[in-house]
Amino acid sequence: MSWSRWQPSKAQPWDHRRITHLWRRAGFAPDWGMIQNGLREGFEPTLERVLHPDSSTVEAFEELSQTIGEAAVGAESADRLRAWWIFRMIVTPYPLQERMTLLWHNHFATSNDKVNDIAAMYEQNQLLREHSLGPFGPLLHAVIKHPAMLKWLDAESNRKAHPNENLARELLELFTLGEGHYSERDVTEAARCLTGWTVHSRKFLFHQETHDAGSKHLLGATGRFNGDQLLDLLLLKPSTAWRIAWRLCRMFFGENVLDEPEIDSLAELLIHNQLNVGLAVETILRSERFYADENIGCRVASPAEYMIGTVRALELGNRPPSTLLLAERFHEQGQDLFHPPTVFGWEEGRQWINTRTILARQAFAHDLVGGALYQARRPFDTALLPARHGFETAGQFYSRLFSRVRPRSTHDGASAETLVRLICDTENQLV
Amino acid sequence: MDFIDRREWFRRSAMLSFAGTLPMFLRSATAAETNGEKILVVVELAGGNDGLNTVVPLNDDTYHASRKTLRLEDRELISINDSVAMHGAMRGMADLFEQNRLAIVQGVGYPAPSRSHEISASVWHTASTDTEDHDGYGWIGRALDKGRATGPTSLLVSDRETPRALRGRRSAPIAVDNLDEFRAVVPMESAAGATDHESNVSGFLRQAAFDASVTAERIAGIAKRTEVGELGRIPGKFGRQLKTISDLILSDFGPRVYYCMHEGYDTHADQLGLHASLLGTLSRSLKAFLDDIQAAGLADRVAVLCFSEFGRQVQENASGGTDHGTAGPVFLAGKNVQGGLFGKAPDLTRLRDNAPDYTTDFRAVYASVLEDWMGVSHESIIGSRRERLSLFS
User: Fold this and answer.
1) pLDDT grade, residue A413 (50/70/90)?
2) What are phi and psi of A135, to 5 degrees?
3) Checking phi first, is residue B140 left (phi over 0); if not, alpha (psi -120 to 50) or beta?
4) Please, are residues A353 and A124 in contact by the beta-carbon 8 Å criterion?
5) What are the tens digits of pLDDT across the range A196-254?
6) pLDDT tens-place string over residues B200-232
7) Which of A209, A203, A219, A131 is nearest to A168 (CA)?
8) What is the spatial distance between Cα B223 and Cα B204, in angstroms, rounded to a whole number?
9) B interface with A, Cβ–Cβ below 8 Å
10) Mean pLDDT, chain B, as a whole number?
């Protein structure tokens, strides 16, 4: 059984490297205190912190977040909406939830470029978060029937007399079954099931007159299916479970670490547990495969993982850089939040990297340390953290912080140049 | 003093050794894939260009009578043949025409034209007159969807929102405002250890970082080049954007389509001087751009398509301007373009609401660009078979 549980051992100890690995994959890069906590508390309590952070801390955070989010919506500002999510990522006591929200934002890739409605994008984002670690069914129903998605994929022009297959196609190919698991005829029939779905006063509305109530035949089933019944039909298909398993494995595993049978077996687990995503995630985070040497530090960090991880590792949560300026850096690095490039979302992995994005990643490191990411320039005090954590040289501290391997010896004092280099370094571009 | 001076740091990095590995200028599309690909540069004349004062009928009574303040006299024109002339400000494009590097397609439009900027631009962008299609993907995006799936496929040089034309199901444009985004601020040491980047992620990253610094250096060098100066001397945003496009093409950056906008053509008032200045900038910039490309030996790979969402009415209005109209000229420029005059001039004696009917459907132009330049079947992109012009040699 490929998802057998991992136990720390002499060969695979619970150490600095694996603590960092867990936080980077299932959250963002840890700061020094989190690494020390992990060492002191051990594996189980640390995993518990990842999965179930203290609820009163989360509540306080949510209250603050809501104020900022609603202000962004009130201002109808896409910039402030991006900034709100970045604020969440930097400050949240529950990083796994933000990472899962990013995952679903990519799965149900919807762009405000077309939706053009800040409130709808905000609501969709909250739906993704609320259902991020629950069963997939309620998530699918909530997101597909939300005005942001209906507008994004032209649901309103899909009427009995004027079918539009856009939503049906993406629903089958991208949101559930995946390519190769349906026919063109299935797309046409699915579009018929979805007729009559519209938006009225910014809410979902089923419009009986434009709904095609006739009998449909798709995916081996026949009936007078409506949209909800279509979704339920799709949720029962094993290929839907497989696609979710694949999505999760892409987040939690590096290139070529897993084989198809292992994804199959995770899909099985999902099928037997009402597609419960949270359970699958926990299974992964307890597994031998997850902590295996070949799975450590072998995924290209997304711009979010790279930048937010760096900001959090440097303990900047209390005086974070301008989230509006950071939003621009997300854009330059190819991850413009709420604006995925296409309905396929971001391709991730090596596709994050090209000449322009590499230079933008370097510029981020340079400007974070130099202070240019603050509205009023505020250079990073490189001496502060090493002193706080009892290190003699800054070079030693930062290379320990940003590297999973024992660093080459560094004789540097508090050199900003060294820190910039460490942030840009391959070790910190990998999670 | 900055804590680290960007320029100084980069200067120091230039002394580092790049020995051993060859840069791959594109990470996600290999050099072999992009090498020799045709490049299309699209220039959108935003606002609705007054085609009638751009490609001007000679000895035409209606033109004469309808354009009291805006009519251009013979001495203000550059004649192409006995019946048609170009606006006198368009010296550069007239030169291109004489050198057989410019095709002018007259009277380009579509049936039942809309005079709304938004709707008509959407028609051109999606290649569909059905407004139900206007939320869908653009004609260029759809064409690029058929090509290679990796690497940047189109690039928008603009501070405006992405034009629908570029939006594909799979292919998405990247937007660049200026070349500062390609400046290196951190020097790279070497690509050592990057040899097995196919299988090894950290090797891949090291190689990518190395490539990026080399590309940045190349772009910096190209941007500063002095030997071809005309394009760099053109004032204003449009000249700067074409210069950026030229720099990126010369750096072999990768996209197959570049897109930019020349704004200000919505000339409802005091059009005469304004329009002359717009056409002057357009013409001078296009000529300088193509000369730049030619000097770099890339003339065979680059063509420019220049369109506007509609032309303007024949009768000028009371403010010395013109209101929204219908068909207008489309330009195609480049070494491989079949130079000359195409299509029929619009018939000014038969106007509908003060504007002429189109004589060439814009999809006949797209069909040629798609088939003869981008190598894609036009039928699959436009949705129907079109008689296509032969705009390339």
Assistant:
1) low
2) -65, 150
3) alpha
4) no
5) 999 999 999 999 999 999 999 999 999 999 999 999 999 999 999 999 999 999 999 99
6) 888 888 888 888 888 788 788 877 775 558 998
7) A219
8) 28
9) 2-4, 6, 25-28, 132, 135-136, 150-152, 161-162, 167-172, 174, 176, 181-186, 201-202, 204-206, 208-209, 211-212, 215-216, 253
10) 86
Rg (CA), chain A: 23
> Please, what sign has the CA dihedral across residues B109, B115, B121, B123?
negative
pLDDT score of B171: 82
Burial letters for A113-132: b for 16+ Cβ neighbours within 10 Å, e otherwise? bbbebbbbbbbbbebbbebb
Tell me the sheet residues that pair with A162.
Answer: A159
Average pLDDT of chain A, as a whole number: 94
Verify whether the Cβ–Cβ distance B201 to A162 is below 8 Å: no
pLDDT of residue A401: 93
Q: What's phi and psi for A287, nearest 5 deg?
A: -85, 155
Asked if the ipTM is above 0.85, the reply is yes
> What is the rounded distance in angstroms from the CA atom of residue A412 to the CA atom of residue A418?
7
Contacts of A341 in chain B (CB under 8 A): 172
Q: Which of residues 230-289 of A touch B (CB under 8 A)?
A: 254-255
**For residue A70, what is the enclosing H or E element?**
helix A55-74
Tokens of residue A15, six digits: 């150490």
- Dihedral angle at the C-alpha atoms of B59, B64, B69, B70, nearest 10 degrees? -60
Please state the φ and ψ torsions of residue B104, each to the nearest 5 degrees. -110, 120
C-alpha distances in Å from residue B190, one per residue of A395, A401, A420, B74: 21, 23, 17, 63
Which helix (H) or strand (E) covers residue A205, if one does?
strand A203-206
Which residue among A298, A332, A370 places its CB closest to the CB of B201?
A298
pLDDT at B77: 97
User: What's the pLDDT tens digit per position in A285-337?
Assistant: 999 999 999 999 999 999 999 999 999 999 999 999 999 999 999 999 999 99
Strands B302-308, B328-333: parallel, antiparallel or unpaired by DSSP? antiparallel
Place of tokens 């934002």: A105
Dihedral sign from CA coordinates of A50, A53, A58, A59: positive
Q: How far is CA B366 from CA A64, A378, B171, B381, in A?
A: 52, 52, 19, 9
> Does residue A334 sit at the B interface (CB-CB below 8 Å)?
yes
Alpha-carbon distances of B249 from A35, A109, A360, B22, rounded to whole Å:
47, 31, 20, 20
Contacts of A397 (CB under 8 A, 6+ apart): A32, A385, A386, A389, A391
Binning pLDDT at 50, 70 and 90, where does residue A21 land? Answer: very high
Contact B205 A114 (CB under 8 A): no
Alpha helices in A145-259 (DSSP H): 147-152, 166-170, 184-193, 227-235, 238-252
pLDDT confidence of residue B220:
83
| A111: three-class secondary structure by DSSP | coil
pLDDT band at residue B3 under the 50/70/90 scheme? very low
Report how far residue A32's alpha carbon sits from residue A397's, in angstroms, rounded to the nearest whole number.
Answer: 9
Give the residue carrying structure tokens 């290999």: B30
Handedness of CA B32, B33, B36, B39 (dihedral sign): negative
Q: Tell me the per-residue pLDDT of B280-322, one tens digit each, with 9 for 90 and over.
A: 999 999 999 999 999 989 999 999 999 999 999 999 999 999 9
Q: Is B116 helix (H, G, I), strand (E, B) or coil?
A: coil
**Contact call for B27 and A355, based on CB within 8 A:** yes
What is the pTM for the complete model shown? 0.85
The rounded percent of chain A whose pLDDT value lies above 90 is: 86
Sort out which chain B residues have CB atoms less than 8 A from A420's CB and list them.
Answer: 4, 186
Instruction: Give the model confidence (pLDDT) of B345-374 as tens digits.
Output: 999 999 999 999 999 999 999 999 999 999
